[in-house]
Structures are given as structure tokens and as C-alpha cells.
Design goal:
about 750 residues; Aldehyde Oxidoreductase, domain 4; 3 domains; alpha+beta; 6-stranded mixed β-sheet; globular; homodimer; 7-stranded mixed β-sheet; 27 strands
Chain lengths: ~750, ~750
């Protein structure tokens, strides 16, 4: 292979780093109005009065719209629109103010806020409160969210129930006889782990410009989304119209991480339909923090049993994900992963998704996985410590492999978990580590079952002999560059002769959302198929024109040549012209590829972190980070390396920094980047990446999904390192200095007074 | 067949007639500048001085650009840019003024005109002058124009020479021994026919908005064109860049008739690149008349010989097309048609394309055909009259049929010429005609060899069970509606569940320009293939899901059913969802069709017109019009009927009204719709259409190209009717009242003085 496998600069990289890339925010349509939203200041309340008059008098304000002003037919889903009679979380959009400028719209919202009165209703702000017997119901009829399904891995299986309570979804996974398992155990560890609600912390807030098409009465939606077809479907359903009337034009996504699937697009479309003018809704940073869909916080009760020789025997787990005011938290995936990495002959896992009066959660890179992994990988370290075993060897002894069942009973496919652990075991950073006072090393592994979806793509010749990949997948991680490499490899031309176009939903072949580590894995297969199709067509034409056998042809220097007879040659431009011109003898060179969901290829990563903890302040700082990941085959090693480093950094956020903090009234206290801590350059240590390639049976050139795995074990590895550095097991993320210092103090107190 | 063949309202019709359709002129991009062009006031001159200073002082003017200011690399074609050192026709763009408003740009041009000085050079304004020995050369190196080729029919063959003179192209067609042929003739008729330069008279002037893409440095061109890929190719060549950097977005075409292929797009793109702001160039009506590409005027010397029994024996013809300042006149097609309708055992045709100092011509519906048909069909009538034969029977006796050679030696394919003539012969309007004083009936036939081009198209399922046709062909005549019918017929669903998208050049499957009667004929085949592909995919999925044999399935009411077991059914929406969703077992339903150029299917039309001529004023008025056309199969009979009526009306323009008139300085005298006469409602009589269906071997459902044939015989039929009404043969079109009155006067003088 001459093209794939070589580190390649991202096509869109220069524009992004030089600031010339255009985002939705930069789009100006003639006659466009600016929208700002009035957000609920209460977690649960009845809207007693909303008077538009004063807001409408603000200069520049054109319209003030509430739910009843939106052109929604009966039966249309009100999801992601405006609140009706009641608000169900602080930050829920209550009304939209449309104005000739953003400033006027902002003024209008401020005036409108004064003219709006609420009657407070009892709210439940934590899963514990929500699960109490007398708790008020957050949602009379829980509505399921396909977003997590589209993002998530193919888990399924297990049993799953749903009933009218704040427990929106409840999953059970069983294997063997758990009670018997624990009877066989020599050591039992039982802990409760807690993780925080995390924001995806993308740089670009949610942004949409919607315009009514005067030709069709439909709406064209320009937006930063990870999934154009998903936005189309959700908007068509929300508006109660045919999908044909909705056109979604993808614009550059300024960071997504699962948080840019669908949010304000249906509302913006409804606003444009209501006023018959283009409407631009770009959230302020504060509004984005308040109403976007972060990753859920979790509480995980975990009990595991192990024999003295290090053989795991039983697991009992209960995961509770706080979904906010609508269902959509990935409790099922969390349950599968909690018991999925290791061979537990006996297990019982219950995974609950609980509604609260907080903003609905959504997908965050590897939904559900960092939470579950934090729990099981902390537990694995504790068991190893209790047994006096090397934590890597202990994991290797119990790690699942191809054919082993997941908690849902489905077998794991070919996977690299063992290879990743062996690489970690033999790596000098682990093998030669030297512990010292206040320094700890922590390891953890984590994996993603692999996202799967059907996809189509086209590879088309241009008249000058260049080629165009046309696909429906949005590029959020450099996947367009990988598609160019795939097509170039197949066609035998340099990648700069390939242009990759993400087409809009009117024109694109189908692709699922760019999420769940599945773009290169699934759409890449379609692109490969399309390029192979195009290549066959090129060679068929050249064979006829050169009077040669197709098998004797090769493509070199943008020219088809007869092997061994280099003077018999036909430039690709000539092939293209002979297939696309007046009187052309041949059909246009137009390759297509369509693939069903491939078999899932699990992707695993291991992290080793070195942490120094100041025992007085509780400040933990990373001194080194090693990421080992099985990617099947690295189509663009530079992009893979970037994913691994980015995932490692986000893992530090999970471990030490990030948390959306709500007060007792359900108000977010840190809704800005001044208050919400994400890892800065100074928080990220020197990071080493090691790419492992256990080829996938299905992915293009053996590639697997790369995006989710590297974030998954981060929090757990940091926690294990902090435990090693301090001797204190902390079970709550993030491990802020206050939390660490308090834990150390408590531990010292306990050690000083062992009798207590 | 349940869908194709039924008269169907045009999808885009309502928007067009209610004025809600948006045109390029309506497009406003942020920061957009308005361009106006300084046009040469002289047919041939050296630009002695051009001072920008005064124009730049006009308020609102931002830039004044000449050729040297455009970012054109060495070697880029300067065609369709700005004049260099010399101007070669009155109306040639010399400079562009860019301003914040169109009014400011117009003012700037007026000021610039005063500041520009020319040195007049000798000009040739007619083909006769241009062919004189000492004539100045219009073009040092004649450049060929692919436009006519793309529009034109598959003629080819014959011999073709090119040499440095004002004769840009010279074609010869030979058969038999012409001298011997004329020796066998009992009657020889010799005439010289002249036709005028005609404007396509579309309602919307040429309009383009070009914007530089900051991501790629390329240009996005929003434009009203009949051929997006052709514009892309021409612009890439003109700018010397890769086609990948040019994106052409098709907007509604407000009339084309061959005149909207490529004109100002490369220049507008160059202007946008020069100033790095979006540039809008919408021609004023006057500028459009001055610099757009009309149909060429012609002079045709024709000599034919026939035996007393009505058997044609010889033809000698010489066609001269006045191409204006660049080559591109369809002389070759004219030559092939001049000798192509009838069996001449001996023929010699010479067809010349001559350059003059007039604006370059382009394609006008059926390029070259009305001119040649006027000559041969006038001649046929005269011969019939000399022989005392019925003109329809005389044509029938000599008409070519499948397998007969064209003048270029290629055989005619299956064709309906005879069927059309027989239908005319038996039609009551002809059979039962009653002549009277001042009333004449005229007939003529004409045909088009059939445009051919390769094409691709996609038919894609949407998640709600609707389907989308994605193609690259622009709809100028209702072809999108025909595509919906084709796809609906194949899929077995109502046409309103099909949406047809003309994609831009970044995203579209290839299609040639919408010209030459080839969109439905060629792209329709690709759409049919794509729909069949999509249907197969739908049935394959349903067969598996319903556990049935594919052959037992049918599609009815948007549902796949097992024949005879109606309860075994799967809605199309479910099929779509099973093929396009997370974990989908099946590939997305994404049908594609790619076809090479089909064999050409000639299309013939016959016209019968009834004319009343006022012998004093020379005013000829139509009293009835019958159009009989073989269309192979009428996919949308309403659209076919519309094409026939439109062609008939344009034929009246050819016959009686239309002519671009130039003065001795090469200045167009009638560059407005106040001065340039096109048929008005009062000029068009009651028109009857008769659709004949001699199925094409290749076209979709047997369809043939429909657009060109109905305009072709119009002028000739009117001329024959005027001759019948007055007894005077007029050989110059249009037959204006002055011309007719003069001819009648001269004829009376000659009759009164037979000795002269």
C-alpha cells in the first residue's frame, strides 16, 4: 500500500488553524433575523403569564414567539421546540425573540424575562430524589431518543423495561448465578463510584441558520451538525412534514464530541417558517452551557469477587445515569461495558436511566463508557492490590477475547484488548517505572464495541482526470482526509487529486451521523467500494481504447498504462473525457459503493499515567501519559495519533477537572469557560502514543473505529495513579484538589485512629 | 404503464407562473459587488487609451478592471474574458466596473466610456466581405467551440478542413456524381436563401453571481445555465485551474433555447478572484442583446434536380454561416440536414463557417436546422409546383427512412419522417383545405438527428419512504417532471413521492448540457436505470424481511406486498429505515444508473400553416397551425404538447418577424424587446398538435428528443404558405411586410412585363 498508512496532513487543517474556515456563525442570508431564547430560570414551574408587549417595543425586535405561535401540526413532536405550559429544567427555552440584530434580540429577551411570571413546582434535581416514592414525575410520557442509539455501539440484547416513573429505562444483564459466584470468591470488593455531568466543551456554540424555500415551502437548514440526515429526520418529525421538504446543509463543525447531533435545528426551522424570513440562532456560550446536551453524571454501585489466584468469579453492578428531563442517557451501553472487559462467570447488572429536572443529556464521546470504565478499572486495581498481583498481569489473566460473551450474551468479535495489555506490560514506561514519594503510576483499559451503520458513497471522475468523493458524512475528526487516502489508494493516484465533498441531504448518498467511531469504519467501506467501482470503470474503458486486457493495466502518474508496454497509455483525463462528453461511447466514470452495517469491530485502548500529588493541597498533576490503542489499521496515522492525544487530554478532564455544578435550585453555577475547567496546555503532560494494529475483519484495509476508545480509560487511569501516589482510593470524579486533600486528610485520620 | 404517458403538470410550473420562483438576479451574497461592463462601440479597433481614474471617482465604484487586471495564468484561454489590445466586435466587453450598487456600476461605465479612446481598424461585417481576398483576418488563430458540439446532433463524418482565413471551418459532403445527377434531371431549381441572425429572446438576461471560497481559493458560481458541467470545464480552462476548484450551482433558468450555455461565467469568476468579494453580473437587456450568442444568419445556395416522375436525382448546396468573431456556428449540422431529409442519389454540399466583426454566435434551438430546412423545404415546394405534384406526396415519395445514408454517409436510425408525412397527408386540415384569394397553405418537415451523451443519475430512498432523483441535468423544459414520472413508473409509486434534485457540480452525477433534445433521452435513461436499481434493492430487502420470492412482490400504495397475500406487506418507509439506520442489516437503498451515449434517435416534425397575406401591406398573418411530431413516446404528453406549441410559435418568428439588424458600423439597431420583434399572442393562431409515437430503440420507454424538431420546419412552412397565398417565392427570412409587399410588387411588374 502506497497511500493509506502514511501520516498525512488534514485537508481542512490549514483553514482551521489560520482562521479562514467559515462557520455557521459567519453565514449571512439576505433578510435574516437573529434569534435569542428566553430560558427558564426555574427547574420546574408553570408559566403563569408571558406578556410580549414590552419586548416587542424594543427597537429592532420583530417578533416574540412561544410554542403556540409555531406552525406545528397536531401530532408533531414538540421535542426540542419551546416549553408549553410548564418548564422542566432551568435553561429550557420558553420563547424566542427575533430581531434585526443579535443585540436587539438579546435586549428583547431581557425585557421579556421581566414580563414573564412562573408558578414554582416541586423539582427533583438528583437521581436519588427522582427515584423516591413520592417524587413528582418529570415526564408524563417518556420519549425515547434515537440519538444515543445512532451514536452508540451495537449493544442491544439483555432485557429492558420501561414504566411510568422517573426511571425512564431499566436494563438487566444476567449470567450464571451471582450468589454462587460470590460464595466462590476469596476477596470481595464493594464500592460506589460517582461521576459528574460533563460538557463536551466544543469551541463553537450550537449554530443554525434556517431559511424557507419559497419554491417548496420547505426549509433549508445550514448548521454545524455531526449528522445531517439525522437532523433532517428529527426536523421533519418535529414539524410534521415530509423529509423531502427539509434540506440540511452541513457547515464546518467547530468541535462536536457527540454534542453536535441535533439541538436547535428543529426550533430554528419552525421560527423561520413562522416568520417567513431566514432565522439565525447562534447560542451564546452561556445559553449553550444551559440548554445543550452534556454527558450524564452517574452513580455506579459495584461489587466484585475474585479468587486468590486472580480469577474473577462474580460481578454485581447497578448503574444509575441522570438523564435530565428527557430520556437519552446511555445506561445500556454503560451496563454492557461494566461487565464486558473481563471474564466474569457470574454477573448481574442493572442499568437505570433516571429523569430529573435538569437539562436533558446527550452523547459525549464514548457515551456511557468512561463512567463504567472508571468503576470497573478502579475495582480491578483494588482487587489486584488486595491480591498482591501486578495490575496489568491481573487484567491479562481475566481479559476477554474473541468469542467471549458480552453481558448481553453477544460474542465479542476479533479484538485487540490482550495485545494492548501485553504492549503495556512490555513498555519501558511501565516495566521500568520507579515509584517515589507522592508519585503514582496508574493503568486502565477501556473499549468500545464499535459503531455500525449502513452507508453509501460515490467516487466520480472529473474531466481533468481528478476525482471527487461525494458522501453524506460530516468531517469532525479529519475523516475527509482518510476518505481521500482510501480513494487514492484504490485508484492509484496521489490524494491531492481527490476532492472530498460532504454533500447536503438533498444530494448526498446516505451516511449516519459522524459519531460512535463509525465514519471511517463504515463510510470508508462505502468510499472504498465506490473507488473500486470507479477504478473498474476506468480500466474497462482503457482496456478497450488500448486494446489490452484489463488485468494488464495499471494506473501510474495519472495515466493508465499497459504493464511492460509503457508507450501504450491513456491519461485519466482522456478516460474521463471519453466517458463524459457529447457522443461519449462509455458511461460516465461514476463509482458507487453501498454497504450494510459491517460486523462491529471493538476498539481498545490502554492508558498509563504518571501522577504527582501534593498531599497538602490535593493538587494532582500528570507527569507523563502513554496511550496504547488497537486501531486495526491506521489509514492516516497522523489523524489517529491526534485522536489518541485528544482523547488522553479529555481523560484528564474526566479525572481531575470537569464537572457541571448545579445549585439547589437547579441552576448551573459554572456555565462559561471561565468557570468550567477543561484541561489547558499546562495540564497535559508529554504524551506518547503507540498504535497497535490487529486488523478488523470488516473495516477498510482492516481499520477500526478510532474516536471513542482513547477517552474511555482516562479517568480510571488517573484515579488509579492518584491511588498509587496517595494510598487513597477516591471514587468520585473529578478528583479536584479539594476532594483529594479531603480524602488524604480523612485517610490520615483513619490511619491514626485505626480503631474508628 | 400507469404513470408515464399521462399529461402531468410541471413540478416547477406554479412557482414560475405565480412569480415566486427565484432567479440568479434575486441572489444576494454578503459583501457582493455589482458588475457592469464597458462594451466596445466599434466592430474592430485598437484600444488606444483607457483611463480608470474618473470612473474610480464615481461614488460607490470599487474597482475598474481590464484584461491585465484579471488573475489569469499564462496559457489560460482568454475566451469569454475581456478584450485585450483590440476589440473585434461592437459589444465586446472591454472593462468591468465593480461597485456597491448596480446604479453606481452603470454610472462608472458611462464615465469610463468617455475616458476610453479607440483607433478604428477596418472591419468585415458580412460573410461576403469576410471572404474577399483582401479582407482583414478577424481571428489570427481560430479557436473551436465545443458548445455547438455539445448542443448539436451526432453528425460528424464528411470531410472538414481548417485554414488561416476568415473561413473558420469548411465541411464537404459528397455522394455519387453530381454532374451526372443533374444530367438525369428533367427539372432543375436553383435559388439562394438567406436567413437572419436571431436572438433566443429568453426573458431572463444572462446572470451570474460568483464568490471565492475562502477554504479552497476556488470559485462558486451561481448561475442560470443549461449546462453546469460545461460551465465548470470552460471556467476552469479560462482561469487555468483544476476543475475541482470550480463549483457551479444551477439556478432557475428563465429561458435558454440554446443561449444559456456559457457566456459571462468565466469572466464573473475572474472578477470575483480579482477583488476577493462576491461579484454579481446581471446583464441589462441591451447588453444581453449586444454580447450574448445568438443564432447565426446564413446564405444557402441550393440547386436541385428532379425527374418528371418526381424522383429526386441531384443536390448541390453551399451553406455560409456568419459566425461572428469566434467560430462556433453549426455549419456542419446545416450541411447534413440540407441533404439529409430526402434520397438524393448524387449530392455535393459545402458548408462554411465564416468569421466577421460581429458578436460570436452560439446555439439557437436546433442549431443550423431551421436555416437548412428553410432552403430545402422551399425548394421541395417549388419542385412539386413545377412538376404539378402534391407537395406532401412528393415529399413522401423521396423521404429517407431507416438505413438510408445521411450526407455524411452514416445511416439514419429508426425514424418517423414517413409516418409524420402520412399523418399530415391524411389530416383533415390538409386533406380538406380550401384555398381562396390571399389565403395559402404551406407544409414543411424538419428533423433533428438526435442528441447523444453519456449520463449518470441516482435514485435514493428517504427514511419516510419517499424517493429522491439526484441528477446533474438542468430543467429548462419540464424535464424534472419527466424524470419524476420515469422514476415513479419504475418504482410503482405516485410521482409526488419523488423529488427531483439538480445537484451542483460538486455533488452531481455527470450530465451533459440540457440542449440538443437530449435530456430526457439520455439522462432519462440513467434515471430509469437508477430507479430500476433502487427497485431491485427495495425488493431484495422486502423479500428477505417478508420471506418471499422477489418475483412475487409488487409495490402498491407505498408498500411492498406479496402478490396474493396482501397481509404480508412492508411499507417503503420501513424498507428505507431498515437500510439506513444504526445497525442496518442492508445497504442504503441507493440506486444508480450510468449510460453511454445511446444510439441517436432522429425526431421529425411536420408543420401545416394557413396564412392570409394582405397584398398591399405585405402583412402575413397565420390563421391556423398544425404541428405533427414523432416523439417516440410521450413521457409527459403535456410537456411534449408545450414543446410543440412553443416551437410552432418560434417558427412564426423565424418566418415573419425576427432578425437582429446591424448598421454599417456593426451596431445592433434593435437591441431591445421594443425593437426586436418576437411573436406575440396575437401573432400565434389556433394551433393543433398531433403526437406520433414511433418508438425509439434506445430512449426511455421509447421516448425520443422532443425539443428541437418542432421549431425546425416553421420558417419553411410559413414561406411555403406565403408563396401559395401570393404566388411569389420569397427566399429571405423573415418575410416582413415590407419584404412581402416589395416581392409582390416586383412579381406583378414582372408578370405585367414578361419580356423583362
Amino acid at each position: 500500500m502506497t497511500t493509506v498508512g502514511k501520516p498525512t496532513r488534514r485537508i481542512e487543517g490549514v483553514e482551521k488553524v489560520t482562521g479562514t474556515a467559515r462557520y455557521t456563525e459567519d453565514l449571512v442570508l439576505p433578510g435574516m433575523l437573529h434569534a435569542r431564547l428566553l430560558l427558564s430560570p426555574h427547574p420546574h414551574a408553570r408559566i403563569r403569564r408571558l406578556s410580549k408587549d414590552a419586548a416587542l417595543k424594543v427597537p429592532g425586535v420583530v417578533a416574540v414567539l412561544t410554542l403556540s405561535d409555531l406552525p406545528l401540526p397536531p401530532g408533531a413532536s414538540a421535542r426540542r421546540m419551546l416549553a408549553g405550559a410548564e418548564v422542566r429544567y432551568t435553561g429550557e427555552p420558553v420563547a424566542a425573540v427575533l430581531a434585526e440584530s443579535e443585540a436587539a434580540a438579546t435586549d428583547g429577551v431581557e425585557v421579556l424575562a421581566i414580563s414573564t411570571e412562573y408558578e414554582l413546582l416541586p423539582a427533583v434535581l438528583t437521581a436519588t430524589e427522582a427515584m423516591a416514592d413520592e417524587a413528582p414525575l418529570v415526564s408524563p410520557a417518556a420519549e425515547d431518543d434515537a440519538e444515543a442509539a445512532g451514536h452508540g455501539a451495537a449493544t442491544g440484547g439483555g432485557s429492558h423495561e420501561q414504566k411510568p416513573s422517573n426511571v425512564a429505562n431499566r436494563y438487566h444483564y444476567h449470567r450464571g448465578d451471582v450468589a454462587q459466584g460470590f460464595r466462590e470468591a476469596d476477596v470481595v470488593v464493594e464500592r460506589t463510584y460517582t461521576t459528574s455531568r460533563l460538557h463536551q466543551a466544543y469551541l463553537e456554540p450550537h449554530a443554525t441558520v434556517a431559511a424557507v424555500d419559497p419554491m417548496t415551502g420547505g426549509v433549508t437548514i445550514h448548521t454545524a451538525t455531526q449528522g445531517t440526515f439525522f437532523v433532517r429526520e428529527a426536523t421533519a418529525k418535529a414539524l410534521g412534514v415530509s423529509e423531502q421538504l427539509i434540506r440540511v446543509v452541513p457547515l464546518t463543525v467547530g468541535g462536536g464530541f457527540g454534542g453536535k447531533i441535533v439541538l436547535t435545528q428543529p426550533l430554528t426551522a419552525a421560527l423561520a417558517l413562522a416568520v417567513k424570513r431566514p432565522v439565525r440562532l447562534v447560542l451564546s456560550r452561556r445559553d449553550d452551557f444551559l440548554l445543550s446536551a452534556p454527558g450524564p453524571g452517574s452513580t455506579i454501585e459495584l461489587r466484585t469477587g475474585v479468587k486468590r489466584d486472580g480469577t474473577l468469579v462474580a460481578l454485581h453492578g447497578r448503574l444509575i445515569f441522570d438523564a435530565g428531563a428527557s430520556s437519552g442517557a446511555p445506561a445500556g451501553i454503560g451496563g454492557v461495558l461494566l461487565g464486558g472487559y473481563y471474564r466474569f462467570p457470574h454477573l448481574h447488572i442493572e442499568a437505570l436511566e433516571v429523569l430529573t429536572h435538569k437539562p436533558p443529556v446527550g452523547a459525549y464521546r464514548a457515551p456511557g463508557a468512561p463512567q463504567a470504565t472508571f468503576a470497573i478499572e478502579s475495582q480491578m486495581d483494588e482487587m489486584a492490590k488486595e491480591l498482591g498481583l501486578d495490575p496489568v498481569e491481573f487484567r491479562l489473566r481475566n481479559a476477554v477475547d474473541e468469542g467471549d460473551p458480552m453481558p448481553n450474551g453477544r460474542p465479542w468479535a476479533r479484538m485487540g484488548l490482550r495485545k494492548v495489555l501485553e504492549t503495556l506490560r512490555d513498555h519501558p514506561s511501565w516495566r521500568d517505572r520507579v515509584s517515589s514519594e507522592g508519585i503514582g503510576y496508574g493503568v486502565a483499559v477501556g473499549g468500545w464495541p464499535g459503531g455500525v451503520e449502513s452507508a453509501s458513497a460515490c467516487v466520480r471522475a472529473n474531466l481533468d482526470g481528478t476525482f471527487q468523493v461525494v458522501m453524506g458524512a460530516v468531517d469532525i475528526t479529519g475523516t475527509a482526509t482518510s476518505m481521500a487516502l482510501i480513494a487514492a489508494e484504490v485508484l492509484g493516484i496521489p490524494p491531492d487529486r481527490i476532492r472530498v465533498v460532504t454533500a447536503d441531504t438533498d444530494q448526498a448518498p446516505y451516511a449516519g451521523m459522524a459519531a460512535g467511531s463509525k465514519t471511517t469504519y463504515t463510510v470508508g467501506l462505502a468510499v472504498k467500494g465506490a473507488a473500486e467501482d470507479a477504478r473498474r470503470q476506468v480500466l474497462a474503458i482503457a482496456a478497450k481504447e488500448l486494446e489490452a486486457r484489463q488485468d494488464d493495466l495499471e494506473i501510474e502518474d495519472a495515466t493508465v498504462r499497459v504493464r511492460g508496454t509503457p508507450q501504450k497509455a491513456l491519461p485519466l483525463a482522456v478516460v474521463a473525457q471519453k466517458s463524459m462528453s457529447f457522443g461519449a461511447k462509455y458511461p460516465p466514470v461514476f463509482g458507487t459503493g453501498s454497504v450494510p452495517s459491517p460486523k462491529a469491530s471493538p476498539g481498545f485502548a490502554a492508558h498509563l499515567v504518571k501522577v504527582r500529588v501534593d498531599p497538602e493541597t490535593g493538587q494532582a498533576r500528570l507527569q507523563g501519559h502513554l496511550v496504547i490503542q488497537d486501531v486495526g489499521f491506521a489509514i492516516n496515522p497522523a489523524a489517529v495519533d491526534g485522536q489518541m492525544r485528544g482523547g488522553a487530554a479529555q481523560g484528564i478532564g474526566w479525572g481531575l477537572l470537569e464537572s457541571m455544578v448545579y445549585d439547589e435550585a437547579g441552576t448551573l453555577l459554572n456555565g462559561s469557560f471561565a468557570d468550567y475547567s477543561i484541561p489547558r496546555a499546562t495540564d497535559v503532560p508529554a504524551t506518547e502514543t503507540v498504535i497497535i494494529e490487529v486488523p478488523s475483519e470488516s473495516g477498510p484495509f482492516g481499520a477500526k473505529g478510532v474516536g471513542e476508545p482513547p477517552v474511555i480509560p482516562g479517568g480510571a487511569a488517573v484515579a488509579n495513579a492518584v491511588a498509587a501516589a496517595t494510598g487513597v482510593r477516591i471514587t468520585t470524579l473529578p478528583m479536584t484538589p479539594e476532594r483529594v486533600a479531603a480524602a488524604i486528610r480523612e485517610h490520615r485520620r483513619d490511619s491514626a485512629n485505626p480503631g474508628n
